[in-house]
Specification:
Length: 339
């Protein structure tokens, strides 16, 4: 279902310049951008994936992962195919990379934004999340859905690689209440070689999202031999803490996927070490992903250390925070969105 795209400029001889992500693709007539989800048709940029829903499910919000945003609730999770990155270690490549194999066939069923919102409400979800692949590539679909959701009292969330331009952030931020950004490395060469993007673009997007008042959490998939040196882990943690020590940082365990089958899963000891480095750098809320440990699954007061939210995987076992987010022991606010 093609629809004219947003955030592009027309150029001479029918070319267009996309301004949705930091690739800022210059696209000739008849050609597609890096994401393969946006194509120049006769001098107009079209979204090829609008309303072509490849997945829509009710998930725990903790699965995003968002730990400081409406904990214990369901989020209606939506995706089309496509991505503007080409991570060699992609954990969801069947959806994200399908357009690179065949950009002429767009899989997915037609599901209009109003239908998504109605289904989210019917399934008693408290939010809508655009996730599973990069929501930037189906930006128009996400924005239209987020607008309708806001009218029904449903906030919207992104799970993103953080490569949006300032214009894209400014357009979506009135409706975007939370985002988890994958900060995949702190090395420009790694971003260029293994991911197909730039570190600088991601860092600037995270900063702008934070400045716009979107609730931000950050995830790093720790890949053995790629981004797991102490120096690089410390650089990531230092950047996040420099923006705010209250930003939750999730460090997730890698499993061999897609084009990176030459190494095993991340040792759990590496996860624990990374999280301790995060604490050393001043981060108050550090969490593990794809690994189990009570110390790093639950939320503790950043001031007195009292237990606030007890988690096991995606399940909330107990939540001592009220809608005001105050610690019941010392009355200190826990940063996040609790109601």
């Amino acid at each position: 279902m093609a629809r004219e795209a947003m955030l592009y400029e027309s150029e001479a001889e029918g070319w267009v310049r996309c301004d949705l992500c930091h690739h800022r693709c210059r696209i000739a007539p008849g050609q597609a951008g890096v994401c393969r989800a946006r194509r120049n048709r006769d001098g107009k940029l079209e979204s090829l994936v609008y309303a072509r829903c490849i997945a829509h499910n009710a998930d725990p919000i903790e699965k995003k992962p968002l730990f400081h945003f409406l904990p214990g609730t369901l989020s209606f999770s939506v995706a089309t195919v496509g991505c503007n990155f080409r991570c060699t270690f992609c954990q969801n490549y069947l959806i994200s990379q399908s357009l690179r194999a065949d950009s002429d066939r767009i899989p997915g069923e037609i599901v209009e934004p109003a239908t998504l919102v109605a289904e989210a409400l019917a399934r008693q979800c408290r939010s809508i999340s655009f996730t599973y692949t990069e929501p930037t590539v189906f930006f128009e679909y996400a924005l239209d859905t987020a607008r309708l959701a806001a009218e029904k009292g449903l906030p919207s969330c992104f799970v993103s690689n953080g490569f949006m331009t300032r214009r894209a952030v400014d357009e979506i931020s009135p409706y975007l209440k939370a985002i988890n950004v994958d900060l995949k490395s702190f090395n420009e060469e790694t971003y260029r070689r293994e991911i197909g993007g730039t570190l600088s673009g991601v860092l600037s997007t995270i900063e702008h999202l934070y400045d716009k008042g979107v609730w931000v959490e950050v995830t790093t998939l720790l890949v053995p031999g790629l981004n797991d040196s102490r120096e690089e882990i410390r650089s990531i943690a230092r950047f996040v803490a420099g923006l705010s020590p209250d930003i939750p940082w999730h460090v997730s365990r890698f499993y061999p996927q897609f084009q990176m089958q030459d190494r095993g899963p991340t040792p759990t000891e590496s996860i624990w070490e990374a999280l301790e480095i995060g604490r050393e750098e001043g981060l108050r809320y550090v969490y593990c992903g794809n690994a189990r440990d009570e110390r790093y699954e639950s939320t503790w007061c950043g001031r007195c250390g009292a237990p606030l939210i007890d988690r096991s995987g995606y399940t909330i076992l107990s939540n001592r925070l009220g809608p005001d987010g105050l610690c019941p022991e010392c009355n200190t606010p826990c940063p996040g969105v609790w109601s």
